[in-house]
């Protein structure tokens, strides 16, 4: 029996080791299950936190988009008002320029007519002066001829 006892002793020892290994494995499995459960809880909490962050970020982004849209709308209104005011100023400037141009044309025409009248008057005056000068010149020539004849007669008589 001893032989059997020796065979049984290692077998008991193996069984005890196996049982201990099984207990250890079951304990390790339980720890892993606990760890997995804790990690699942952490993962779920992380997902919930991430969803909350995403919702907050989305809400903030939506608020910012709304503010930007309002700003853009206000800027468009300002730009439209500015364009309208600029067009009104341009139209007024064009109207003023046309009026000033019409006034300048009228002034130029009046000055041109006055200048032409002065030119005609000057030409008439020049012609009158020339005619008078020609008459005086003719008269002076006649006087020179008459005086020359008298001188020649006096020289001939002397």
Give the helix/strand layout.
Layout: H1 2-157
Give a description of the structure.
The chain has one helix at residues 2-157. The protein has 158 residues and is mainly α. The longest helix has 156 residues, at 2-157.
Helical residues, percent = over 70%
Question: What spatial form do the alpha-carbon principal axes imply?
Answer: rod-shaped
Low-confidence sequence ranges: 1-5
Largest sheet, in brief, is: none
Mean pLDDT: 91
Q: What percent of residues are in strands?
A: under 5%
- Secondary structure category: mainly alpha
Number of separate helices? 1
Rg: 64 Å
Keywords, please?
158 residues; mainly alpha; 1 helix; rod-shaped; disordered N terminus
Quick rundown:
By secondary structure, this protein is an all-alpha fold. It has one helix at 2-157.
